[in-house]
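User: For a benchmark we're assembling, each entry needs the component sequences followed by a predicted structure for the full assembly. Here are entry 17's components. Please fill in the structure.
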Amino acid sequence: MSEAPSPSLELPPLLVEQAVAAALDEDLGQAGDITTDAIIPPDAIGKAEIVARKEGVVAGLDLAEAAFRILDPDVTFTRVVGDGKKVAAGGVIAKVEGLTRALLTGERTALNFFNRLSGIATLTSSFVAAVKGTKARIACTRKTTPNLRAFEKYAVRAGGGVNHRFGLYDAVLVKDNHIAAAGGIFHALDMLRPRIGHLVKIEVEVETLSQLEEALRHPIDAVLLDNMDVGTMKKAVEMVNGRVVTEASGGVTLETVGEIAKTGVDVISVGALTHAPRSLDSSLEWVRA
Amino acid sequence: MSEAPSPSLELPPLLVEQAVAAALDEDLGQAGDITTDAIIPPDAIGKAEIVARKEGVVAGLDLAEAAFRILDPDVTFTRVVGDGKKVAAGGVIAKVEGLTRALLTGERTALNFFNRLSGIATLTSSFVAAVKGTKARIACTRKTTPNLRAFEKYAVRAGGGVNHRFGLYDAVLVKDNHIAAAGGIFHALDMLRPRIGHLVKIEVEVETLSQLEEALRHPIDAVLLDNMDVGTMKKAVEMVNGRVVTEASGGVTLETVGEIAKTGVDVISVGALTHAPRSLDSSLEWVRA
Amino acid sequence: MSEAPSPSLELPPLLVEQAVAAALDEDLGQAGDITTDAIIPPDAIGKAEIVARKEGVVAGLDLAEAAFRILDPDVTFTRVVGDGKKVAAGGVIAKVEGLTRALLTGERTALNFFNRLSGIATLTSSFVAAVKGTKARIACTRKTTPNLRAFEKYAVRAGGGVNHRFGLYDAVLVKDNHIAAAGGIFHALDMLRPRIGHLVKIEVEVETLSQLEEALRHPIDAVLLDNMDVGTMKKAVEMVNGRVVTEASGGVTLETVGEIAKTGVDVISVGALTHAPRSLDSSLEWVRA
Amino acid sequence: MSEAPSPSLELPPLLVEQAVAAALDEDLGQAGDITTDAIIPPDAIGKAEIVARKEGVVAGLDLAEAAFRILDPDVTFTRVVGDGKKVAAGGVIAKVEGLTRALLTGERTALNFFNRLSGIATLTSSFVAAVKGTKARIACTRKTTPNLRAFEKYAVRAGGGVNHRFGLYDAVLVKDNHIAAAGGIFHALDMLRPRIGHLVKIEVEVETLSQLEEALRHPIDAVLLDNMDVGTMKKAVEMVNGRVVTEASGGVTLETVGEIAKTGVDVISVGALTHAPRSLDSSLEWVRA
Amino acid sequence: MSEAPSPSLELPPLLVEQAVAAALDEDLGQAGDITTDAIIPPDAIGKAEIVARKEGVVAGLDLAEAAFRILDPDVTFTRVVGDGKKVAAGGVIAKVEGLTRALLTGERTALNFFNRLSGIATLTSSFVAAVKGTKARIACTRKTTPNLRAFEKYAVRAGGGVNHRFGLYDAVLVKDNHIAAAGGIFHALDMLRPRIGHLVKIEVEVETLSQLEEALRHPIDAVLLDNMDVGTMKKAVEMVNGRVVTEASGGVTLETVGEIAKTGVDVISVGALTHAPRSLDSSLEWVRA
Amino acid sequence: MSEAPSPSLELPPLLVEQAVAAALDEDLGQAGDITTDAIIPPDAIGKAEIVARKEGVVAGLDLAEAAFRILDPDVTFTRVVGDGKKVAAGGVIAKVEGLTRALLTGERTALNFFNRLSGIATLTSSFVAAVKGTKARIACTRKTTPNLRAFEKYAVRAGGGVNHRFGLYDAVLVKDNHIAAAGGIFHALDMLRPRIGHLVKIEVEVETLSQLEEALRHPIDAVLLDNMDVGTMKKAVEMVNGRVVTEASGGVTLETVGEIAKTGVDVISVGALTHAPRSLDSSLEWVRA
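Assistant: Structure for entry 17:
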């Protein structure tokens, strides 16, 4: 998140193109923008700005830009506030100039992506602010919008959070059902070891201190302290004593996150970051000549 | 929305398959569910229920079912409360039985779709309830999640609302930028007429009564009354006097919608239905033998 | 359809790219153009013109251009006669200059699209000419070539026609089977009303004047007068008396369309525009240095 | 083309599924069949027949069946007249029974494929009949509908014709531009030989007898006699004297094909088979209980 | 890898379907299996066995089965030797019965997948055998066949190996270029820490003992000992002393792997497993009635 | 294969783009190159060379270039040794300059394609060298890597070989199973003739001289002499006496190919070219400023 706002190179470029092209396709159907095509001359040029109506943290400019660029390859899109940066209410986030048709037709697709992702970044930054002064990091979960996960995980990073595993494939999380099926943590880990490569971490979900005690007897990388009250969690952190990463999870809100962080946990995961964000309130304002 | 809960036939079947398959792909990556595959035997059978933690209106069971069925073609998925129906807190929505691996692996994908769509249906039904006794219908907008629009529009219908246009292609909505570019409503409609087929409706956005007066001089089908205060809107409805459909739009909330409805407008469109719903709080609960 | 021939911005750009890329793929397979690749040097440059052998109306230059551009991004493609314009027999429609390989390899794909679409535009313009002086507009139907509908509907517009609904999704057309299943028009419309948004038009198909009388008792937008003889149709138009749009349909030919138009119907839909056009007879002629 | 009508196994099954699914998607969009979904109960069962209004040769039942089956996996589709067989005017081609919604919604997609392909088969069979008694075989060209080539080539076979090369990839056809670029047939073949595998045939296009003479000096497999008058073609066939395959091409019509065949050519290729067929006139007729 | 051979549930099912369908498409093109379709009756039934000509370890039966099943949904495919098991020379691996056309047409696609994957499993098992008695595990690298990685990584597991990271996305591997660009390991790790989630492991590549010493001063999870001779590697393992995972890498062969394992490293990664396997020599043998 | 190394225009351009984009997607997943993105500044520029560690024949530069270009559209990629040319050990094959991130992230994908294809070209050129002085040409088979066939067939051509049929669709190969099912070669060819176009070659597989004698009685284009010993093959070639193309097949190795060639066969097909090549040993070496 460098000082000068610049295109994020963190999002695999093909993902951006594919998602935005599909969304334009969704909005244009087979007949296209029948209002704009009938009224706006094909060579008319326009100028507009993405303006924040309320303050927030920016995320998703790559997707907004792609929406206009796909419709007009010669569009210029200038970032005023880059991804990961705060914008004040009324602030200009980006300027776009190109075919008027492209601006009118791409507007909603650009904002549908951008406002959602900026909403996630903004909410994440609030949680991050609420744990300031502790060592806790704020993480997202897999409760993301289907088929937008890469972008939502990115928005969490833009908001100052970190990512939990991306899917079922990149880390092991042993839950109660797994433990029950295996006949105990010992057996579950025993089954895992020969099949899991040396670059995959293993986290175990526990709900009680005695489960935690059991889990810590085995070579694992992290424990997920599920739905513990703050008192129990504090004891859990002490019991772990830095041997593995500790993660607090379960119904965390902006009201409760600060106290949870004070227990000394390393990570607090918050499903609401991605399943209940308020979209950023930004819009495309036309700049008349 | 028949009495007996049944699969919705309103969602084009290929859309459901494609979206759910893509979401499973997103969660499984190339390595799959490495935790479950290592621990759960391939032929173990399990049983679980989708249970609502809070009350709400159900939408999206086709997608939840598809998530499990794609992973286990022989799964049985029984609907207890169908799409469009209310479920009470603690109520069982559906029962699913099949390979334990399929249930564990498909759970998050199923719920990510289902909870989001049910959240939209639930919010819609609140708006619908708030205008009960008036003739106003509640409609969604194009502020939907990219690439999920068909499902979110469907969820609005399940919640008792109606759909605004699906995209830029299926109805004309003339906005201020179009009118300015054309040099007035008269010219805009003049450009539209030769290009728009006889089964496409034309709606014009107006912000003032004088704009409305101008719009009504032309053969249009609907007017969008944008961001008018309730008093002005009442006058607008009187001025229209049933000649065209009237639609109220702009920052509508559950607090304001009732009063807006009393102005006599035909339709109230609410962007928040799809861009700011709370996900339904439901989860997959295991049924032990 | 501006005076200066220019790229059509009415076709969603991604649709053009995808369809042309797929068609090139269909023609190139995995081995490519084995004749040209073996004989023509990779850097040879050529020049050719698309020339009409017979007169017609042009449509589909975007697709022709895409066929060459995908094979040679630096190709220049200059339109002499734009979409929607007449070309005389022997007239040059467009000039193309670029890698000789790209011209030879892309030729058939370009012409397969272009000649078919221009054939549709040409046939449409004949129907439009045949109803000149009446208020009737010529519309296409859903009898289009599978997976080319967006382009064929566009070609109808280029030929001076208008589009009927694009699919089953963007307008309601109540046919006899629907009426029978519902137990009458009244019930059918009763079922439709709560589910159809305010920007969707409703058309009812009728075959007799008594069916028409029944239909007109309900709030609908258009009637499709199916297979009526000219005398009956005239009475139907009088009975409607401008209250709803009237559409004539069923076996319309260039011979009969003029008389049908004189009945005063608003729209005449002609399936043959898209299912039985003659391709325009144009070819790629090489310009030797 | 066995006696008992049966599914064609000649069409790669995935091609059929993909093309029909895409065409249904094109017709259903995101909202689906809004008329049928509102009026027809989800569990209503219907019965219908595909009936020919005029006589013709059947082709494309696999695609028609797929249209209904994708919408209702339990549909039964019974072939009365199989692909490649003649149907009389008024004859029943196939019977279909299943969800009424699936029948109504799939009807147009099924017929758009089926009528086009049967039209091609019918036209092909007329050409085949017109050369009866000669050794000439009727072949199609690459002037096919973009992205439907596999099906149209199949329809030509169903009509009794044979296929020319499928694309630029599966046979060499040396045209005048290639010869000019190479500096003569000798050089063109010299460039081809080291790059073309032993299972690829080489055909050379000639317009005059002297070009033919030159071509025959080289080891080639076939000559395309382009736009020769019947007298010249007869001499060409004599000059070839069975050493290579002879193909007549260029503006062949039903009126001229018989005489052309009598010149003794082996193959007559007819672009009109695929670029100018009349669709078969068949429709879906409901069978009331 | 249970005793009774059974379908692997470890491969995400959609990956298998997509890859095999694409490969069939590659082999069938648009004309299909023209030899088989012309000669074999559509309803002929056949029986065949996949037989190993040389001994090996089996992997990829899911893909072989899919090749036949896609062509004939009613095929029966019986596994005699399951994935991960040894088959002796001459041994029957699986039996398949179904439409003769499906067997002939699907044969090559099935074997192209199966023999390649079984070759990888076989080679992996040789490496695993060569390190028996040590604690070293054999891992693959990212040197896989493009677009087949999921299957090749699976084959490595079937052969008794473990997987290194699947891609650039699921673990951090800091190489010399990264360290140089960052200005030292310290800075590289400093940049990584705020951006990497708590479930992602960090491995650092070192070539010398002094680089190793430097790396071990930081909180990392693993070190990749790149191209070290056996003596140096032994010292490296001692220096690490169990604090992080040690991985040997670089030009490992069946001849050298045993000695490398004796240095005490935890993991030995072998690029040759996936970029230079010998395909298993198996074929489809017909069982005559 | 012109003197100056240049982009191959023989590979259909869309195939290259699609395969490389899919492979990048496979390596980047949803999180991208997490190591590089965290450490390397987005605007850093780097320079590197693809260097051969061992000598070989180059093939696949289009794919290597695409890997870098997709990640950085402004990359410059300069070919030093073109496809089809020999590179000595230590030789520079291509130079690439662009965003350091693009170079680091694209490296493995570029090399995974390039080394595999160059390995095939290299092996092919060894076989070609081994038959020098005879008229035999070296051909590949359908034993290719699934979904890479177009590229592998191309690499065979780059190595001086020719291609056998690309798939089941572009030539007829009658095998023993076909002959058995048809009841003899005569019947098999009888069934083929009416269905096979005039530009499709027919090859018949024979294992004995008496089968060959039988085959030669029919109008075919080529015979595949399957697994014959050299003595028998010599007699077969004499028996054929130039009437049809002769192809030797079955377990051909570098050791045996020379003697086989001396029998006078026209083509020798070698499955090992594509199913058992050694990848070229090349790597990306950084050029420090």
